[in-house]
Amino acid sequence: MNSENTTDATTAKDGGEEPVVESFQLDHTKVKAPYVRYIDTEKGPHGDVISNYDLRLVQPNENAIPTAGLHTIEHTLAVQLRKRIPGYIDCSPFGCRTGFHLLTWGEHSTVDVAKALKESLEFIGFEATWDDVPATTIESCGNYRDHSLFSARQWSRDILAQGISSDPFVRRVV
Fold it and tell me: Hey, which bits of 20-113 come out as E strands?
């Protein structure tokens, strides 16, 4: 795991350092979704540790979850993962709509994160009702009309049918 708040960088054309975004360095043709991938751990100046994980739900460049379903999955995961992962900070969707970044305080194994994701998707796919989807009103959501529990439920079931792997390159289904 990474240490001491380091950021990989390359030299920019102006001679300064250009930050390197780790996920842009990942060869998306080599991964086997759905999976959980540990990305990096950053250590703050006071020793605080924040870990970043790639929760990839669908195969990059082969599929993308429609925004309404992804939005509903996002809102529901915000509650469900908080229940299952100590130190949960945030789970934000990728712009490519293939999954999420998960941020946590401390470090967690990809097996533990994959199990929490699996349980959360099982809840969405088989148990959730509209009342279980948080923040779907004009007051609580920036795009409250763009939700679909039907889509979230179906995508969750399809993802679960493939199994959640704790490794991005070798299928190790939890």
Answer: 35-43, 49-56, 88-93, 99-105
